[in-house]
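Possible regression after last week's pipeline update?

I re-ran a chain I had predicted before the update to compare outputs. Posting the input and the new output here so someone can diff against the archived version. Not blocking, just want to make sure nothing changed silently.
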Amino acid sequence: MAGITIAYSGVHQMYQIALAAQELGALDYFFCSLIDAPGKWGNLFAKVFGSDRLINRHRPELDPRLVREYPWPLTYQFVQQQRKKTLSAADWEKTNNAFDCWAARQLQKTESRLFIGGENCAIASLKTARQKGMKTLLDCHQVHPNFLEKILAEAAEDLKLPAPEPFDTPTWREQKLQEYSLADSILVISEAQKQSFLANNFSENQLFNITLWADTNLFYPSPVQVTKNKNKLQVLFVGALSLRKAVPYLLQAIELCGDDIELTLIGTKTSEINSYLAKHKGNFRYISTMTKAKLREYYWQSDVLVLPSLVDTFGWVAMEAMACGLPVIVSDNCGVPVPDETWRVPVMNSQAIAEKLLMLKNHREYCTSLGEIAANFARQFTAERYRQQLQILMQQMLN
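New output (post-update):
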């Protein structure tokens, strides 16, 4: 014992972080809402509601004796979601804070030397850890709120859209800032995210950047040759149809390209860009959200994925697409690594997106070769690699 305790209500990277600590022989406890493992509430939940709902919480490698569940806040949220259909930020705040208060009480009973918590779900636990003299590491999922608010406002002005609603509620924003101050170290997942903290006066020594991974068991090149339309470039976007994802700039780019491009948008619509979706209605095909297995088929059928985000901490879909053998065009503010920096375009620049799309359309063999490069590149980013780099940080903090 006297190693590491980890706590988080959601998923993100926490189950891999817990596994990294266990592989290091340093995991004391992993506090979570649910885990799909024998004898656990999560296993019962999976049997009742289907294992697909807990696919990201199915970690058979984790020793269940080291895992403590507190499912009640998440269960209540699930019931509320069925009743109201949508969840507000306030619903998430209640769930995370209720879990965090429970985790802080459990943490009080441990002798661990390092506490790892997740952003927006750790303020009580971080305070307890500091009182006990523990080292603290905060796993951050988003860019610094000041950076996000600034670029959203700039894009809204550029596109002549109403000023966007704040991404975080006032209480959640304040909680994030308090969590930052309570953490000895902050774990980020990309250079773009790291730069957002450096721009807000954080020390380089406080920030640790460890790149995420591609699930190559689920995302891989098509095992059979896929016949594609040689006359039109098949362009794919996956994510929220929102200002933050810069969908209006992608729609402008498609219009600049003329009839040589077919765009498919997959994701949840947001009201903030309704005017742009209506204006460009004939220039894209829209599909709502789907399972990962079905999404993989769309990666296989497309020629290129475009993720022109104003800011994206990582950009999972770009890594998934590359793992499936699809080249990508991403913005400078998209955190996902790419084989060559020429695969990036400036933020808020529809002309640059259009130029790259037309180049790929006019050089289809080259586009195919980029897909092979993408698949080989994505394979090097594995969950094992993530855990190995994380273990180095864990050892440094424990020592």
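Follow-up from reviewer: compared with the archived run. The longest helix spans residues 89-107. Marking as no regression found.
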